[in-house]
Write a structure and sequence with these properties.
Blueprint (H helix, E strand, L loop, with lengths): L2 H20 L13 H26 L9 H27 L6 H24 L8 H19 L1 H6 L1
Helix pairs in contact: 1-4, 2-3, 2-5, 4-5
């Protein structure tokens, strides 16, 4: 039941990595910012903040923390907005930078980016299936959260502290 969504997610992750590796990087503007780096940092920071909302709302939904009963809408919408914030970032990263193994931090960031979108794809596919085991959504949701936190740590936090 979970193998197909996990396999599709893995294919997305590998496909992004391969595309990023074979595509010749080209410069590209980034929204209204004067430089792509601050744009990506602030968009990723917004997604990171929403990932924290995702974690809290998931803990309420699964009964690990007490909270209002209507947290599922908060969880859905914070996740949607978080992913929307990452889309211009990933498009710029893949198009303008590609997959980059030039340093351990940048390699980890490239791998985490591929993992994040693969895990997100698997989670979205699992949500539409009936009979998904109870462990599957928290596991893949934790993977999506971990991927986004790792991306923030290897990009925005690095930018803010360097």
């Amino acid at each position: 039941m979970v193998l197909v969504p996990f396999a599709v997610g893995a294919a997305v992750a590998v496909g992004l990595g391969v595309y990023g590796n074979v595509h010749a990087p080209q410069s590209a503007p980034m929204l209204w910012f004067t430089s792509p780096l601050p744009a990506k940092v602030w968009l990723t920071t917004g997604a990171f903040a929403l990932a924290l909302v995702q974690l809290l709302s998931a803990l309420v939904i699964y009964g690990k923390v007490r909270g209002p009963g209507r947290f599922s809408a908060v969880h859905r919408w914070s996740g949607r907005v978080a992913v929307l914030l990452t889309v211009p970032v990933v498009v710029h990263c893949l198009y303008a930078l590609g997959f980059d193994p030039s340093s351990p931090r940048v390699l980890a960031h490239s791998l985490l980016g591929c993992f994040f979108f693969g895990a997100f794809t698997a989670k979205m596919l699992l949500l539409t299936r009936r009979g998904v085991p109870g462990w599957a959504l928290p596991l893949i949701g934790g993977g999506v959260f971990t991927g986004l936190v790792g991306l923030w740590l290897t990009s925005a936090l690095w930018f803010f502290t360097d």
